[in-house]
Structure formats: structure tokens, C-alpha cells
Amino acid sequence: MTTVLPPAPRDLAPERALAAFAAERLPAVEEGLADAVAEMSLPAPAVRTALRDALDIGGGQAHRWRPLVVLAAADACGADRAAALDVAVAVELTHTASLVLDDLPCMDDAQLRRGRATTHRQLGEARAILLAVGLLGRAVDGLGRAPSGNAALARGWGEAVGVPGMAGGQAMDLEVRAGRALRGAPRRLYRRKTTALAVFAAQAGGLVADAPPALLAALARYGDYLGWAYQLQDDVDDLAEDGAGAGMGSMELAARRRARLTRRAARALARERWHRPASAGLLAAAAWRIARVPEELRSHVEGPWETARC
Hints:
Layout: E1 4-5, H1 13-40, H2 45-55, H3 65-76, H4 85-102, E2 112-113, E3 116-117, H5 119-123, H6 125-144, H7 150-161, H8 166-177, H9 185-208, H10 213-241, H11 248-270, H12 277-290, E4 300-301, H13 305-309
Antiparallel strand pairs: 1-4, 2-3
Helix pairs in contact: 1-2, 1-3, 1-4, 1-12, 3-4, 3-9, 3-12, 4-6, 4-9, 7-9, 8-9, 9-10, 10-11, 11-12
């Protein structure tokens, strides 16, 4: 049974463990992304530059939380250290492709991404679209390099990227911008714009470890709650970037909603038996940080990772 306890005093050990895990594992993801750029680069310096900018190679601004989730989930399910690396890189390539497409004039019409000119401003719209397609192709190639779970990974990726996931969610986003109020199934699909890849990232780690259905279902619930909490924070950031800001009341409400969602994400993990419980604890700790839940709203969720730290 999951028990939610008061937040004081807050245990910093999970966050230190998360920072150590990220410092140890994410450099390999950066190397994998750099290798992908080398494999994809056309004989045109402008394309290579735009590709490196899109992936933030050497820039240090990209969050890389999706590949971190892949790696921690794989570890929690008992996978070998290197088993999930290609999949983690594939998830980041997929995310980057979605950013390139979102930035297009027919979508968000963004001029800057991480302080640099967006891909379509560097290359033009046609080349930006082709670069995004190339990123997606290289992502699928990476899924095929995983040591196990390839068929399930392909199905999961197709659902995450396609109409049931990111593409359908983005279509609903365009409806919202046109003034349509979404209810029911259309609103649930709208949320998939963000949650679909988070769900896939969490489940993919389990798939490469041949995790049982119960763990895969728990990872899917975790990813869904995490993805929506992240979107709520991203919406606040977008308002700030546009200069619109948000009232203190609405910001507090959004923070409380993120806290509630991240608690649910942690509870989804706490109910299961993990091969490496400490790594499941890393996923729980990551949710608070990814959703940027304020310290005073974070609460302890007791899970199997507690005994793993004793």
C-alpha cells in the first residue's frame, strides 16, 4: 500500500542519487546523438549546423529527461547497462523531430529555439521538414538496434508518434488555436501531444528488459502522469516567454496540479516489485524535478525503493 507522508523533513538522498545517475549515464546519450548527427549529415555545412543546433549538441540547454527516463526504467526492470542506450537516443531524436515540426510557420511559427534560430529559419521550410523526417527515420533505426523487444518497441513508437499520439494531439492543438473548445475524446487526444512520448519513454525501458505486463502498465501510468505534469509547466513557461505572464493564483493552481500528478506518477511505481527498486526510486524523484514542483508541495511517497536504500 502507498502512504503519502508530510513533506518535512524532505529526504535529499533520492535527488542526489538521481543527479549521480544522470551524470553517469547521460554522457553516453550525448555521444549517441553526436554519432547520429555524423551518420545523418549531408555534404552541406548548413545542414550539419542546423542538425547540431536542433539536437543541442554541445549546447547544454536540452533537458534530456526523456532518455533519462528510458535508462532509469530499463535499470529498474533489470536490463543490462547498455541495453537501452540506442532506445534512449531514439527517443531524443523523436522529440527533436517534433520540435522542428512544431516550430514551422504552419504550426507555432517560432523564430528561436534555445536562443538559436529555428531549423526552418536556417534551412527553409522544405529542408526543415526533410530533416525532421530524417530524424524520425534514424530513431526507428535506433529502435531496431535494441537487443530485445524490437517488435513491441516499433508498435509503441508508432502509436506514440502517429494519430493516437503526438500527431493527433498536435492536430487537436491546431483546433484549440482555431477557437474550438475540446471535450471528451478530443481533449484526451490533445493531451497525447505531450504524454504519448513520455509514456513510450517509460515503457521502452521496460521493453528492452523484457519486463512483465504489470511493470509495463505501471511505467505507462507513470509516463502519462509525468507527461501531463510537464506540459502544465511548459504552458507556464510559454506564457512567460510571450510576455503574457500568469497571475499568482493561476501559477499556484498549476503548481498544485503538477504536484498531484507527480504524486500519482510515484504511486504508480510504488505498487510494483522492481528488479532494482532503487532505480524505480530514481524515476519517482525525477518526476518532481521534471515537472518543477515547488519544494513546499513535494510529499514523500513510500515505495519499495525505501528498503533498497537501507
